[in-house]
């Protein structure tokens, strides 16, 4: 089953193309990450999927409906984690989550969701007294309280400390394990690698690559770099067969400072966005 289907999506702002013909499928139950530099068109695409922005052209289906015309019942099936709304600062965390629960036909238990986002100790604290990272976790709680089938997470861990990021990743994994489809935008390549079943890279309003984090842009078949130190200094060779090369070089002796590396997701990503026109 397809949760999101996009065909030929276009959107311009005053003649400037923000999204210039995007095709994309997100399967039900998968965690899909949309990557791309600032201004690439991620937010525009996501806002169209959320029904918050009109498109100029193309077909879009989200949970079987066109977000441009879908009604309240559809809206209750999706969860949107906004980049920090500043309302309800006087309410406590629990009051705030309870308030949002009232908008949905079958919300999750309030305290369970507060626990899931790691805010149990802050449940009685006023929203205005939360730290930035805690506030962000509350945003997530508000986005998932309605037990959505599909959750949009827009740069969810910006400003999190490393421990909070790991906890947040666990939360995303537990949502995914429960069958929730997740569309994530992020600038953190390690986050995409840790969470996403598939990723797409968008640059200049077009998809320039799509695949699993392991195979994106031919990463899994890329040559390996074998590096070591010999009498003449540091050496490095790019090869398809690192094992054979090391066997030949070492002849049974130790090679100093030996490493074998393949392109990281970040290396591949940077290469992809550096020459999007070649690949489009
Ligand atoms: N309301 C708007 N009016 C005019 N231009 C806009 C508007 N919103 C976005 N744009 C332009 O559309 C392009 C795509 O913007 P978008 O916000 O979709 O990018 P993004 O990939 O989400 O970037 P970021 O990583 O910075 O959030 C940019 O060139 C941006 O300046």
TrEMBL record:
Keywords attached to this entry: Antibiotic resistance, ATP-binding, Cell membrane, Membrane, Nucleotide-binding, Translocase, Transport
Residue ranges the record marks as coiled coil: none
Gene3D superfamilies recorded: P-loop containing nucleotide triphosphate hydrolases
Membrane topology: Peripheral membrane protein
Keyword Chloroplast: no
Record Pfam families: ABC_tran
GO molecular function: ATP binding; ATP hydrolysis activity
Principal location class: membrane
GO biological process, any: response to antibiotic
InterPro entries: AAA+_ATPase, ABC_transporter-like_ATP-bd, ABC_transporter-like_CS, ABC_transporter_ATP-binding, P-loop_NTPase
TM segment ranges: none
ABC transporter domain residues: 4-229
Intracellular or extracellular location(s): Cell membrane
Keyword Membrane found: yes
GO CC, one annotated term: plasma membrane
Protein name (database record): ABC-2 type transport system ATP-binding protein
């Amino acid at each position: 089953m397809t949760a999101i289907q996009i065909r030929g999506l276009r959107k311009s702002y005053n003649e400037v193309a923000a999204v210039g013909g995007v095709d994309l499928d997100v399967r039900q139950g998968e965690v899909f990450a949309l990557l791309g530099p600032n201004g690439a068109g991620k937010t525009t695409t996501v806002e169209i999927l959320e029904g918050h922005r009109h498109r100029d052209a193309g077909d879009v289906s989200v949970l079987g409906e066109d977000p441009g015309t879908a009604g309240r019942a559809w809206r209750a099936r999706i969860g949107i984690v906004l980049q920090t709304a500043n309302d309800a600062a006087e309410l406590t965390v629990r009051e705030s989550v309870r308030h949002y629960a009232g908008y949905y036909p079958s919300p999750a238990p309030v305290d369970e969701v507060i626990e899931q986002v790691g805010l149990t100790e802050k449940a009685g604290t006023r929203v205005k007294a939360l730290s930035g990272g805690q506030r962000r976790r509350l945003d997530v709680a508000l986005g998932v309280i309605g037990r959505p089938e599909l959750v949009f997470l827009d740069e969810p861990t910006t400003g999190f400390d490393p421990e909070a990021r790991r906890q947040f990743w666990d939360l995303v994994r537990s949502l995914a394990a429960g069958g929730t489809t997740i569309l994530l935008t992020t600038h953190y390549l390690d986050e995409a690698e840790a969470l996403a079943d598939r990723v797409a890279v968008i640059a200049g309003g077009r998809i320039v690559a799509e695949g699993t984090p392991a195979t994106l842009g031919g990463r899994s078949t890329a040559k390996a770099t074998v590096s070591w130190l010999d009498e003449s200094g540091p050496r490095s060779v790019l090869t398809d067969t690192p094992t054979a090369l090391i066997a030949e070089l070492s002849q049974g002796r130790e090679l100093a400072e030996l490493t074998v590396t393949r392109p990281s997701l970040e290396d591949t990503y940077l290469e992809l966005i550096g020459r999007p026109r070649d690949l489009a």
